[in-house]
Each structure stands twice: as structure tokens, then as C-alpha cells.
């Protein structure tokens, strides 16, 4: 029966193919009494060990296929599986109820989930509910002796339709057999959507009824750009979809030829296209996608993967590897940005009612100076092996920057006295707090460069959390207020003679790119997979014409939709880039 579903556009592209209904095995359990407590505890620990081994294998696969950023969710899964408090809770439940391990696990997970669900003002904890059920399912399957389905076993191209696609499902896929994803649940910022974009697989999520409306082997067309799904399409619709697929594949071939090209606009203006990266494992992707620089290396993953604070020498080895492998490209390494949605268990941070506005990033570095100084020394030492820039995150006041810079100067002076080799280092800041954006002209007199962190800047400016579906509509990258902040920062940087970059998701957004070029942004840093299509787009754009567009957008619009309409009129077909 023909149906037309509407969901959330999670990963761009049009695809036509047959449905594969991906369903969970029956993991229902029956509570039963036990007589041998030691045996039951041993069963539980064996299942835990098997689950950890499985997740470690999945993480390795994800790191290889998708990069370290996308694989970080599995570090969280391993940490949860090895959490002493969680393990003890299940052990206590087994002993107290004298019941089987799977029943005790289900009780503990239900209790944990209920506690997390009450933290409605903490998006990080809300997201952990999905992770909790993912690890619980894996342990339960081992206890029941049931093998979980693996999309890696597919042997024909299909469109996967499922209720919800958890991260461990997504990374197991072989892209040549997965044409696309459709789910009942999920949002554009969910783990699965991010992973689908990493795989460059079209996806539509949050349809609510896909599993009820679509049957195995049924022909469907999904459009990951518009968020639409059509079942039993007409011959004409199939032909159109197949042409779109062919055009997309042909464009991938064209994009590959741009890997070694410089980024130049149609009217000859050079622009730097940089990559965001999480760990040294991302180096091949940065090089393969023709990045001209690294605009952001997140150092927190180095800490999150460790069971203790990494030593100075351990950090130095990683930083040296990155800057030397990417030389002579400049590499911006951001100092530790922990807190908010990225706590470090071994730092024993006190719970905060609003961690996104609490002791995070530079605030934590200044509060824990031994940690900060160790990282700065490792970075300064690594500068001898390439072109290194250091960036401080979450700067809100001049005093914060001055304190951080003074600590950097002190450590550099000590290393100079000790005759430690080092190179020239630019020291800059992320502009992601509205207060810093409003005082950008003052900051520009004291920093070597500024990089706009739009992910947080938009959230703070609009007072909206993009992961909260109730207010996600307010998270508007194209809102004139946000664009005026960006324009203010760029103008301040240029007036002071320093470069201004952007390292948020907005930097690779095709609707935003023409405006940012018109504003005069110097460097665009994005996920490596977006670099070539952005380079291609920029080669079709005339900056001098876009300056007029930017002026009109900044001075004559009041809503995001007005901005989008204006860009689409000025650059016809811009959405096709997505």
C-alpha cells in the first residue's frame, strides 16, 4: 500500500531500494529464584566481560571506519559496563532477591533509567538513557545465550527500517550494502544520525510509524535532505530517484579530484578549509579529504579514553604525532574542554545543576592549574615538530584569557630556560560566549587569532539546547542575531589584523557558507567529510556578490526563514549541495 511518511532529515541524499526490517530478538526475561549465589554472580561477571570485549571490538571498528569522534560513544559504554557502582548494584540485587542475573540487571537498569529521566534539565544525562539500554541489551543477550543481530552480515543492498538505531548497530554496517536508514525514533543530533552522516548514508529518523507502515522487501524512496519517505513509488519517481543516486555518485568522483586543490572562490579569493579532529586516528581522514589545516583538535578525548590524568609525556607523544604528520599545515589544538556534557569521572567533579554554565573548559583549567600546566608544557614541546597553534575554550572575560596566557608564558619561559626545543606558537581563543562576542574588539588586541565556536554560541545566544526536542526549534544557526554576532567578531578581528576562523557545524553548512564568505570569514573548519563538497561549492561563488548578500541579510532580515529564502534566491540550487 502506497504511503508517504515525513520524518527528520538526518543525513543527506536520495536513495531508492528494498526495505530490510531490522528487529530486535526476543530478550524478554522471567524472574526465577536461585540457590547458588556464587554461580549466579559468576554468570553476571562473565556476561559483563563478554559485553566489554564486544564493545571494544565495535569501538575499534568504529574508529577505523568513522574516525575517533564518532567512536567516542563506545568509550562511554565501556565505562558504564565497568562502573563499580553499577556492578555492585546488580550484585546486591542478585543477593537481596536471590534471583537470576538478568532479572536483577533489568531491575537496576529500570531504576537507573527512572532516575536519569527525572533530570530533564540535563541533556547529557538524558542521552545516557539510550546508552544504558544499549549496554543492558548486550549483557542480557549474553546471559540468555542469544546472539544479537548484526547488520554487517547483510549480503545485498537494502534500506534498513527499524524502530530505533542504536550506535553499536550503525558502526557494524558495510556501506556498500546499506543504502539508507529509516527509523521511528531519533533526532538529527542523535548518535545514530551523526554516525549515518559519517558513513555518508542517507537517513530519515523520527517518522514515528515507519516500522508499522513499511514491510520487508517493499520498494521505498527516502530523501535524507527533505526528511521524506515514499513507499510503492511510481515508475517515474523511481527513475528520478535513481538519477539522483547516479548524480550523487558521479559528484563523489568529481569531489575526489579536488583533494589536492587549493580552495579558491569563483572570483579568485583564497579561503582556508580546515578539519576538525578528535584524536590522532583522524589524521588519515584529514589528509584524504584535502584539509589545508586543522582548525580544531579536541584534546578532551585523550583524557576521556584514560582511566587517569594522562602524563605530560603521554600527551606530548600524541601532540607531536599530530603536528608532525600534518606539517606544514597549521594545527589548532584546543586545551582541555571538560565539563558540560563531557565529565571526567576520575576528577570527581561535584554535580552541578547546570553543567553547561558551570565549571567547564577554561574555568576548570584555571581551577586545576597542575592539570593545565602539564598540558601546556606538552603542547609547547610538541611545537618543535610542526606548525602549532594553541586555543583556549569558553573564554568569557579578558581576565580569563590573561590568566591563561600568563600561565602559558610562565611555562614557556621555564622550558626556554631549560633549553627545550620549541617552535613559534600562536595563542588564540574560541569565541563561543556572547559576552566575548560583544567584546571581540577588545580581545582582538590581545590574541593571535579567534575561532568562532558556533555550536555553543548559538545555544547561548538563543538560550536553546539543540538536543532538547522541545526547544530545538530555537536552535537557529541562520538567525539574524547569531549572524550579527559572527559579523561583529569577524570585523573586530580584521580591524586588529588577526585571522578569524569558525570551527562549529555551521562552517560546513551550505546555507551559511555564502553568508560567511560575504562577511569575510578567513577559515572554515568542519568535519573532514564535508571539506571537498564545501570546496566545490566555494568554487562556484563570487565573494564580491556575496558581500552584498551578507549586508542585506544582516540589515534587512528578522527571522531565520527570511535568511534562508534570501540565500536560496541569491544562490539557486544551494540545497542540492547538502
From TrEMBL:
GO biological process: phosphoenolpyruvate-dependent sugar phosphotransferase system
A GO cellular component entry from the record: cytoplasm
Domain spans labelled Phosphotransferase system enzyme I N-terminal: 6-128
Protein keywords: Cytoplasm, Kinase, Magnesium, Metal-binding, Phosphotransferase system, Pyruvate, Sugar transport, Transferase, Transport
Top EC category: transferase
Function text: General (non sugar-specific) component of the phosphoenolpyruvate-dependent sugar phosphotransferase system (sugar PTS). This major carbohydrate active-transport system catalyzes the phosphorylation of incoming sugar substrates concomitantly with their translocation across the cell membrane. Enzyme I transfers the phosphoryl group from phosphoenolpyruvate (PEP) to the phosphoryl carrier protein (HPr).
Residues holding Mg(2+): 432, 456
GO molecular function, one term: metal ion binding
Domain PEP-utilising enzyme C-terminal: 254-541
Reaction equation(s) it catalyzes: L-histidyl-[protein] + phosphoenolpyruvate = N(pros)-phospho-L-histidyl-[protein] + pyruvate
Protein name: Phosphoenolpyruvate-protein phosphotransferase
UniProt xrefs under PANTHER family: PHOSPHOENOLPYRUVATE-PROTEIN PHOSPHOTRANSFERASE
Gene3D superfamilies the UniProt entry points to: Phosphoenolpyruvate-binding domains, Phosphohistidine domain, PtsI, HPr-binding domain
Taxonomic source organism: Levilactobacillus brevis (strain ATCC 367 / BCRC 12310 / CIP 105137 / JCM 1170 / LMG 11437 / NCIMB 947 / NCTC 947)
Domain PEP-utilising enzyme mobile: 155-227
Cofactor(s) annotated in UniProt: Mg(2+)
Residues where phosphoenolpyruvate binds: 298, 334, 455-456, 466
Amino acid at each position: 500500500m502506497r504511503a508517504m511518511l515525513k520524518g527528520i532529515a538526518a543525513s543527506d541524499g536520495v536513495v531508492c531500494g528494498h526495505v530490510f526490517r531490522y528487529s530486535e530478538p526476543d530478550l524478554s526475561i522471567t524472574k526465577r529464584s536461585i540457590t547458588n549465589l556464587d554461580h549466579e554472580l559468576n554468570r553476571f561477571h562473565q556476561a559483563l566481560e563478554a559485553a566489554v570485549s564486544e564493545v571494544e571490538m565495535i569501538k575499534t571498528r568504529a574508529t577505523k571506519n568513522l574516525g575517533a569522534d564518532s567512536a567516542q560513544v563506545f568509550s562511554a559504554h565501556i565505562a558504564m559496563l565497568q562502573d563499580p557502582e553499577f556492578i555492585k548494584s546488580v550484585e546486591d540485587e542478585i543477593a537481596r532477591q536471590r534471583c537470576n542475573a538478568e532479572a536483577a540487571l533489568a531491575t537496576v537498569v529500570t531504576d537507573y533509567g527512572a532516575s536519569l529521566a527525572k533530570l530533564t534539565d540535563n541533556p547529557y544525562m538524558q542521552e545516557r538513557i539510550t546508552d544504558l539500554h544499549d549496554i543492558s541489551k548486550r549483557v542480557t543477550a549474553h546471559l540468555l545465550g542469544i546472539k544479537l543481530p548484526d547488520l554487517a552480515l547483510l549480503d545485498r543492498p537494502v534500506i534498513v527500517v527499524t524502530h530505533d538505531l542504536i550506535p553499536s548497530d550503525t558502526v557494524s554496517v558495510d556501506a556498500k550494502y546499506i543504502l539508507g536508514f529509516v527509523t521511528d525514533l531519533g533526532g538529527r543530533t542523535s548518535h545514530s544520525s551523526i554516525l549515518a552522516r559519517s558513513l555518508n548514508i542517507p537517513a530519515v529518523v523520527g517518522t514515528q510509524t515507519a516500522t508499522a507502515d513499511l514491510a520487508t522487501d517493499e520498494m521505498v524512496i527516502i530523501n535524507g535532505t527533505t526528511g521524506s519517505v515514499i513507499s510503492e513509488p511510481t515508475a517515474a519517481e523511481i527513475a528520478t530517484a535513481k538519477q539522483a543516486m547516479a548524480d550523487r555518485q558521479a559528484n563523489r568522483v568529481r569531489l575526489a579530484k579536488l583533494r589536492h586543490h587549493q580552495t579558491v572562490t569563483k572570483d579568485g579569493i583564497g579561503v582556508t578549509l580546515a578539519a576538525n579532529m578528535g584524536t590522532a586516528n583522524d589524521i588519515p581522514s584529514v589528509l584524504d579529504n584535502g584539509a589545508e589545516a586543522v582548525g580544531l583538535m579536541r584534546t578532551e578525548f585523550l583524557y576521556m579514553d584514560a582511566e587517569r590524568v594522562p602524563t605530560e609525556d603521554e600527551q606530548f607523544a600524541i601532540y607531536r604525532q599530530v603536528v608532525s604528520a600534518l606539517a606544514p599545515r597549521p594545527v589548532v589544538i584546543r586545551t582541555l574542554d571538560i565539563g558540560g556534557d563531557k565529565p571526567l569521572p576520575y576528577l570527581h567533579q561535584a554535580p552541578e545543576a547546570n553543567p553547561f554554565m558551570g565549571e567547564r573548559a577554561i574555568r576548570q583549567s584555571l581551577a586545576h592549574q597542575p592539570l593545565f600546566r602539564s598540558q601546556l608544557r606538552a603542547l609547547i614541546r610538541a611545537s618543535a615538530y610542526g606548525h602549532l597553534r594553541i586555543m583556549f575554550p569558553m573564554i568569557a572575560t579578558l581576565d580569563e584569557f590573561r590568566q591563561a596566557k600568563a600561565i602559558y608564558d610562565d611555562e614557556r619561559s621555564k622550558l626556554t630556560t631549560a633549553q627545550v626545543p620549541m617552535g613559534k606558537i600562536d595563542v588564540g581563543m574560541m569565541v563561543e560566549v556572547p559576552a566575548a562576542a560583544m567584546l571581540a574588539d577588545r580581545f582582538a588586541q590581545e590574541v593571535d587569532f579567534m575561532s568562532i565556536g558556533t555550536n555553543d554560541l548559538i545555544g547561548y545566544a538563543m538560550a536553546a539546547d539543540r538536543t532538547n526536542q522541545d526547544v530545538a526549534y530555537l536552535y537557529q544557526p541562520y538567525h539574524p542575531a547569531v549572524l550579527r554576532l559572527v559579523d561583529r567578531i569577524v570585523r573586530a578581528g580584521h580591524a586588529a589584523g588577526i585571522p578569524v576562523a569558525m570551527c562549529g557545524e555551521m562552517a560546513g553548512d551550505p546555507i551559511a557558507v555564502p553568508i560567511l564568505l560575504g562577511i569575510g570569514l578567513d577559515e572554515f573548519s568542519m568535519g573532514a567529510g564535508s571539506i571537498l563538497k564545501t570546496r566545490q561549492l566555494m568554487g562556484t561563488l563570487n565573494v564580491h556578490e556575496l558581500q552584498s548578500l551578507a549586508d542585506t541579510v544582516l540589515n534587512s532580515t528578522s527571522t531565520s526563514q527570511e535568511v534562508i529564502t534570501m540565500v536560496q534566491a541569491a544562490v539557486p540550487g544551494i540545497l542540492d549541495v547538502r
